[in-house]
Amino acid sequence: MPRRPTARRWPGAPVLGALATAALLAMAPPAGAAPADSAGGAPHAPVSRAFDRAAEEYQVPRDLLVAVGYGETRLDGHGGEPSHANGYGVMHLTDNPVHRTLAEAAVLTGESEAELREDTAANVRGAAAVLRSYADELDLDAAERRDAGAWYPAVARYGGASDPGTARLYADAVYEFLSAGFSALTPEGERVTVGPREAEPERGRYAEVRPAAGPVPSAARPADAPDAPTTPDTTALLSADYPPARWAAAHPDNYAAGRSAPITHVVVHVTQGTYAGTISWFRNPEAEVSAHYVVRSSDGEVTQTVRDRDTAWHARSGNPYSVGIEHEGYVDDPAWFTDAMYRSSAALTRHLTDRYDIPRDRAHIVGHHEVPGNTHTDPGPNWDWNRYMRLVRDDGAAAPARLSFGSYDTLRSGSTGEQVRAAQQLLDDHGFDPGEADGVFGPVTAAAVRAFQANRGLTADGVVGPRTWTALLSAGATPTLRQGASGPAVERLQRALTAALGRTVDIDGVFGPLTAAAVRDYQRGRGLAVDGTVGPRTWEALQTGR
Question: Which pLDDT value is given to residue 185?
Fold first, then answer.
């Protein structure tokens, strides 16, 4: 990732120390010891203790505070090294021309900026103070501060996005983590866990904003892309160069129109930051950097920010002749490099090599550090080049199957096509080996279908009909979803409803009125409480193919 050159207390906030609920030892486990599993202040759990204390002092919901940190860094402070946006510590306190949460935290807490950068407890405390100051500007009272959902606008602001669409993308990710629950292992071996919890986001002015689809400056919008929305963020924009990708234009000051050389290379980067934060940074005129594409860790979602035909500023001497792909994460933490990310990025690179006749070899698909004149180290030693190149070359590893269809056909032995590939991928994703995902429904796939059906309590006939499709498409985490939610879990819900109801439910990842109506129809038809909210009972019905 290219980097640009570069003690206040609220009334009623409790004094910590003697009033803390327990005196905990701030020490990492000895080498070889099992990780400390801390869901809130367990002994030998200094990071969790820091969250507990900061949450209490500034009256920020503790699990929400942890979710912000998890979304920013997976609770890894990276030894005090700055991110692409000059952010520091587990909470990514920033120090750049347009977002200065580090300086804000110093004023609010009385801590020095050096302490806030380098000390985890101070860093967490600083983030809590900044979030509380934003909550105060929203006039949240004590009761509202206890409601994690009421903090949504404060969380969106904390992300530092330069436009509402990216701010919502950031905040939605935090609330998805909070809803699903998560567990992170710190570099010192402490495990910090947040269990699933309901938190209905009160989006306020972001309610009508579509994530990462902000108004695109006319000078930066593709001529053949869909028109930009006339009101902020009401319409999703898709890439004109790579249809599976979203489009969120970088600011025109961060790239050069046109090219001075043909495209001959693909450059692999790691963001040293989050997906939403990177997109936001490229849309900020102060950044003076960009890349053509950004790939999300959790699900492989791709956003294009610069047209292929234009010169993104990502690799110095390599800019004129290359396409740059940023991957969410940090070079020193392999947990960010998920299977979904590898597969999605490889599919994008295959597309680029086909389109621009680029050889699929390591001389033409290179890391940032391999471009002459660059000093960066990404993608780093944790990037699995052998795996990535196998996927790029498609050596027995197909690109992710298309999962979204207007209707789902009944499949059985002898069926072929894209829907068979989709079923095979879903079976494989959930631990039922269908053999090669080749789009041919053979004996191995039939056996996997029967095993899946038996596992879900369905008739094990080896036929993928509406009930089996519903169970396959809905399988996974079960966050509570309601109108206003967005993201991959909503897409999964929309696919399952399309199969279950036998009618098309728009699969756009946004839980709007039509999705709510489809949920109520499903609940009514299955004898469930008809409230339009997808909670545990509705998920259970979907995942058992009712």
Answer: 83
For residue 323, the number of C-alpha atoms closer than 13 Å in the C-beta half-sphere is 29
Residue pair 493/503 in contact by the 8 Å Cβ criterion? no
Residue 256 CA to its chain's centroid (Å): 28
Q: What is the pLDDT of residue 227?
A: 34
> Residue 332 is inside which H or E element, if any?
none
In angstroms, what CA-CA distances link 191 with 23, 40, 333, 544?
A: 19, 10, 15, 32
Q: Has residue 20 got a pLDDT over 90?
A: no
* Nearest-angstrom CA–CA distance, 235 and 214: 8
Upper half-sphere CA count for residue 173 (Cβ side, 13 Å): 26
DSSP string, 351-377: HHHHHHT--SSTTTEEEGGGSTT----
Q: Whose CA is closest to 267, among 216, 222, 312, 333?
A: 312
Structure tokens, 546: 């009712």
Range 488-500 average pLDDT: 91
Q: In sequence order, what are the residues at sequence separation of 6 or more whose Cβ sits closer than 8 angstroms to the Cβ of residue 305?
A: 247, 248, 249, 250, 279, 282, 283, 290, 291, 292, 293, 294, 312
Q: Which of 121, 166, 120, 174 is nearest to 148 (CA)?
A: 174
Residue ranges of domains in the chain, CATH in brackets: 47-204 (1.10.530.10), 246-393 (3.40.80.10), 415-456 (no CATH), 474-544 (1.10.101.10)
Return the pLDDT at 300.
Answer: 87
Q: Are 325 and 383 in contact (CB under 8 A)?
A: no
Residue 48 has pLDDT above 80, yes or no: yes
